[in-house]
Amino acid sequence: MIAIIDYGVGNLYSVSQALQRMGYEYTITADEETIRAADGVILPGVGTFGDAMLELKRRDLVDVIRDIALCEGKPLLGICLGMQLLFTSSDEHGYHQGLHLLSGHVKRFSGDFNIPHIGWNDLRFHSPHPLLKSVEEGAVYFVHSYHVFPDNPDDILAVTDYYGDVTAIVGRNQIYGMQFHPEKSGDTGQRLLENFARLCCKTEVPIG
Amino acid sequence: MIRKRIIPCLDVKDGRVVKGVSFLNLRDAGDPVELATQYDQSGADEVVFLDISASQEGRGTMIEVVRQAAGQLRIPFTVGGGIRDPEDMFQLLRAGADKVSVNTAAILDPSLIAAGARRFGNQCIVVAIDARWEEDEDDWFVYTHGGRKKTGLRVVDWAQEAVSLGAGEILLTSMDQDGQKNGFDIPLTQAVTSAVRVPVIASGGAGTEEDFVEVFQETPVEAALAASIFHYREISLEDLKATLREEGVHVR
Question: Which residues form a coiled coil (chain B) (predicted)?
Fold first, then answer.
């Protein structure tokens, strides 16, 4: 069972349906016991960094998420804003502290080019990883104005190119993040999401 | 580098696709979700649903369409039409829309753009602009209410204001070219893309594959949108993508 954390912001339904299409059980929840009982956790996110942190705090979910990721070592995947929340801090509409599961800062794109970064852009993998298994370096769908600068380069599993390298996938221990929307990114996105689901549900027997 | 997007648009009324659709393989030619799914499988990069329902019931039906689309589609989609306040935006985003598009309501109350951007992020907020050339005034003006009412707003001015308020994307429709099928409005598209630093979607006038090649080669536009030529299969998405690739346009 994969818990998709419901904290009032976020496009939970698309993620849940992607899991359903692949045959994985899921639950959309903000309940601590349910989250703790899950095999893995997805932290989605649409909205703004500060608001999202407020909503997580209001629901007493900050410690639960940190506990699951740091103490229990269960797989955790942050998607889009959800990935940014895994880091130390963000500049979005003022300075905000994040979950600080990974070390790094979130900044707005800056330069003489179109912002937000919206559309399909190619992944470039940094090193082999179970999350990237059988995935091609294909195009996935990005939609964001802020991006992550991890302090530790080893945390970066994949980048994309948008007027310079942009962190696209991060991973450390069982903490993962995807800046793009895997649930909206065709075959490539589906494979990445499926690999995460397999990391969660190790007992799952792959079909075929 | 980022790829140029091709976006089919579906007009939906009371939960049904309204423009005549002659797809052969659909069980139900009026089902927006089934049509959009077919576009997804044919290589569309994104889909726009434009809700043209006049009634509250129709709007309620749209939420259900969005929910079903979110369950089926593996590409992002935008929903526009009849959005009046941030709560309307929330309902659609919560049901699974990736972006919402505002037009008339944002002109009547520009703070809607700022409120939406603040709550959901700029990247969710598309401002749709219907533009028509005014010979007497030697400029493009913004029209509202589905293109029926002229405003005193100049298109470039409004595009810049919308972006400064928080629009993350501009969906620019040329009313002059819409339905003409003789090409996108290149001068209009150039005028807006050179005035703003957010992605612009060109719309109105597509009739042939070459029209798409032209708009991508002649302007820095990031996406091109069309409706009936895809619905009627005058152009297939697969062939269009192949042509664009041959012409050196970077597409998925």
Answer: none
**Any CB–CB contact under 8 A between A112 and chain B?**
yes
Q: Which CATH superfamily is domain B5-246 in?
A: Aldolase class I (3.20.20.70)
In this structure, the strands spanning A89-90 and A96-97 are: antiparallel
Indicate whether B146 pLDDT > 90. no
Contact B81, B53 (CB under 8 A): yes
Q: What average pLDDT score do residues B39-49 get?
A: 96
> Would you kindly state where each structural domain of chain A is located, as residue ranges?
2-200
Report the candidate in B177, B235, B232 with the shortest Cα–Cα distance to residue B204. B177
Tokens read off for A22: 């692949």
What is the least distance, in Å, from the CA of A161 to any CA of chain B? 5
- Return the pLDDT at A25: 95
Residue B138 has pLDDT above 60, yes or no: yes
- Report, as an integer, the average pLDDT of A94-113: 97
Looking at residues B214-240, what average pLDDT do you find? 95
Arithmetic mean of pLDDT, B2-31: 77
Please list, residue by residue across A186-205, b when 16 or more beta carbons sit within 10 angstroms of its beta carbon and e when fewer do: bebbbbbbbbbbbbbbeebe
- Indicate whether this complex's ipTM tops 0.85: yes
**CATH H-level superfamily of A2-200:** Class I glutamine amidotransferase (GATase) domain (3.40.50.880)
| Residue A93 pLDDT exceeds 60 | yes
Task: Determine the pLDDT at residue A48.
Answer: 86
Contacts of A51 in chain B (CB under 8 A): 119
Interface test with A, best of B123, B124, B192, B197 (most A CBs within 10 A): B123
Would you state the structure tokens that stand for residue B46, as one six-digit string? Answer: 């994104």
Q: By the 8 A CB rule, do B219 and B202 touch? A: yes
Binary contact (A11, B72; C-beta < 8 A): no
With beta carbons less than 8 A apart as the criterion, state whether B5 and B223 touch. yes
Nearest to A114 among B67, B73, B197 (CB): B197
**CA dist., res. A83 & res. A69, Å (int):** 13
Asked if the model's pLDDT at residue A18 lies above 70, the reply is yes
Could you tell me the residue ranges of all domains in chain B?
5-246
Q: Do A81 and B120 touch (CB under 8 A)?
A: no
Cβ <8 Å between A117 and B2: yes
pLDDT of residue A169: 98
Contacts A120 to B, Cβ<8 Å = 2-3, 5, 45, 252
